[in-house]
Design a protein that fits this description.
alpha/beta; TIM Barrel
Length: 294
């Protein structure tokens, strides 16, 4: 596939809707997928952090991926989160899915056990050699406790079957080195909604977004403007969205985005423990910002 074309723009890190009994709400999932595709999302990412993948059973993950793939109906590419802190278990998990309509996997740096840079390099090389579809790396040190350096990312960018990275370190200097020295076909996606505008100016290919769940149309338009180099128009949209973006993360993700989607009537405001819904004050603030958004 032409990765650089197919996976550019707005990728949405899909929430996993739950009903009040904390079961997966497939009707709400269908509604959300249609809202995102009609709103201009370029691709969907399933079973990421935003999807509360850590709280889903293997059986639920398999069923949810199958449902999303069927509902999307090849209208947009699908990326599935397959990561963990045991290399052997990640490779074992790769066998869980039917990859006919899955375009890539997104694999997070191992968390908790804090591997060295060499450990990260060997971990991802092993996964890339076993994955039936291309691999996108995911660096999010704020959650994992380990940062994958630009040097390690650039080494992995040379590995067959590793096609890109979701870079969510928030370190613009690190991002600069990756963008400067990467192979031309290697995709670089932002993992920080609030930094998307400056990162577009730096030369990223798109964003794997939380905000995009609730505001796919304006956010995808901002990204299109940024990719086209029209930063006057991109900045106008960013200025309208920035306060909402900040409010979404005050009490963590995906608590904020699930509150926003429930305010919009798309899903229920239900999360699985240890995550809890946002406070009443944050919910009311989001409701007001969403009501006044133009």
């Amino acid at each position: 596939m032409n990765n650089s074309k197919k996976l550019q723009g707005l990728g949405v890190a899909l929430v996993t809707p739950f009903d009040p009994k904390k079961e997966i709400d497939y009707n709400a999932t269908k509604q959300l997928i249609e809202f995102l595709i009609q709103g201009g999302a370029n691709f969907l990412v399933v079973l990421g952090t935003t999807g509360e993948a850590a709280t889903l059973s293997e059986k639920e993950k398999k069923a949810f991926v199958k449902f999303v793939v069927k509902q999307a109906g090849k209208r947009v590419p699908i990326i599935v989160g397959v990561g963990g802190n045991s290399t052997a278990h990640v490779i074992e998990t790769l066998d869980s899915y039917d990859y006919d309509d899955i375009d890539a996997i997104l694999s997070v740096t191992p968390y908790y056990n804090k591997p060295s840079q060499k450990g990260l390099e060997l971990h991802f090389k092993e996964i890339a050699s076993k994955s039936p579809v291309p691999v996108i790396l995911y660096n999010v040190p704020g959650r994992t406790g380990v940062n994958m350096t630009a040097e390690t990312t650039l080494k992995l960018a040379q590995v067959p079957n590793i096609i890109g990275i979701k870079e969510a370190s928030g370190n613009l200097n690190q991002l600069s080195y990756i963008l400067r020295d990467k192979p031309e076909s290697f995709l670089v996606m932002s993992g920080d909604d609030g930094l998307a505008l400056p990162q577009l100016a730096m030369g990223i290919d798109g964003v794997i977004s939380v905000l995009g769940n609730a505001f796919p149309k304006p956010f995808s338009e901002m990204i299109k403007f940024g990719l086209a180099g029209n930063f006057v128009e991109a900045r106008k949209i960013n200025n309208k969205l920035i306060e909402i973006t900040d409010a979404l993360f005050v009490e963590g993700n995906p608590a904020g985005i699930k509150a926003a989607l429930s305010i919009q009537g798309i899903i229920e405001n239900c999360l699985r423990l240890p995550l809890a819904p946002v406070s009443e004050s944050t919910f009311n603030k989001l409701a007001l910002l969403i009501k006044n958004f133009k």
